[in-house]
Write a structure and sequence with these properties.
Blueprint lengths: L11 H6 L8 E4 L6 H7 L7 E6 L2 H10 L8 E6 L2 H10 L5 E7 L4 H5 L25 H7 L2 H11 L6 H13 L5 H11 L2 H4 L7 H12 L1 H15 E11 L2 H15 L16 E3 L9 H6 L7 E7 L1
Parallel strand pairs: 1-2, 1-4, 2-3, 4-5
Antiparallel strand pairs: 5-7, 6-7
Helix pairs in contact: 4-12, 7-11, 8-9, 12-13
């Protein structure tokens, strides 16, 4: 097992508050990671419940199958190596009809960030990789060294939402004419040497948004999120709950819009009989954010945003 398996689940108390109580449930974790949330939720699940763990990272799945084996006598367990957008169609074909609780803790897990060989972090010198699924062919190195100027602009401007991107794109194109750009630190140096001094003086690492755009491109994370939200909402059983934790305003807006689209016309007048009560109800009219205490104990929780919804 990898030495980078330590993971502190963010907003754990808030997540646990939405776990259905007093009945056997089917719990689907679409972003299993190192089972930080899953293990705590399974502590509360009644015997005879069902757990389904999904991750596109085989290393994470292998770890979790061993780590969660202690629950095997009381909770039926299934593990699936898949992107979360494809997981539910696969589950349907396997005979699963729905879930009472679905969790999506999106983004890169701490073990992926902390393992230098995965190439996600601008703080470690490593090969440009950034694949969540090591079986995928597209890497950050491929993007940096083969994408056209127009494609690189799209990655940094549209996906990474970088404010000043063209000098970096221009420098990448020039450098790669001489040699391939292979490592995270090579890319960080290009970024730092291309941006104006006023950008370098701003709070935060100058490479952060560039690396985010690359990560999104390599793993198709925005499209994955949009597709998975639709699948998850449709897979909920009546009274089933979907919890989504995102880590930036772009991701949160996608979640907010998806929830709004299905819950907007779901108001029910309890005095009016015979009305259609299908639909969804928001469990978080305003998103939940971590407490100051949690941020002090785990600074990585700071940007997390939680929204939850329930199917009627």
């Amino acid at each position: 097992m990898s030495e980078f398996n330590s993971h502190i689940p963010v907003m754990l108390d808030e997540v646990l508050s939405f776990v259905p109580k007093g009945k056997k449930i089917t719990y689907l974790d679409l972003t299993l990671g190192r089972a930080g949330h899953a293990s705590n939720i399974m502590d509360k699940m009644l015997a005879g419940s069902t757990f389904i763990g999904v991750d596109r990272d085989q290393e994470a799945l292998s770890y979790c199958e061993q780590y969660l084996s202690r629950y095997g006598k009381t909770v039926k367990q299934y593990f699936l190596h898949s992107t979360f957008s494809k997981a539910i169609p696969i589950l349907r074909k396997s005979g699963f009809a729905g879930a009472d609780l679905i969790l999506m803790d999106i983004g890169v897990s701490s073990p992926q960030f902390d393992d230098p060989k995965r190439g996600f972090s601008y703080r470690y010198d490593a090969l440009l990789d950034m694949r969540m699924d090591q079986g995928d062919s597209l890497t950050a190195k491929t993007v940096i060294n083969t994408y056209s100027e127009t494609e690189l602009i799209r990655v940094f401007r549209d996906l990474g939402q970088c404010k000043i991107y063209y000098p970096v794109v221009k420098k990448i194109l020039k450098v790669r004419e001489e040699k391939e750009i292979e490592t995270t630190f090579e890319l960080v140096d290009i970024i730092k040497n291309s941006l104006p001094a006023r950008e370098l003086r701003k709070e935060g690492h100058p490479a952060k948004q560039f690396f985010l755009g690359l990560r999104y491109e390599v793993n198709h994370e925005i499209d994955e999120l949009k597709s998975a939200l639709k699948e998850a909402l449709n897979f909920l059983n009546p009274k089933g709950r979907l919890i989504v934790i995102s880590f930036n305003s772009e991701e949160d807006k996608i979640v907010k819009d998806a929830f709004k689209a299905v819950s907007e016309n779901s108001h029910v007048d309890k005095y009016k009989k015979g009305q259609d009560e299908s639909g969804y109800i928001l469990l978080t009219k305003k998103p939940l954010v971590p407490t100051e205490k949690e941020i002090e104990e785990n600074n990585r929780s700071k940007p997390s945003i939680l929204r939850a919804i329930e199917r009627r």
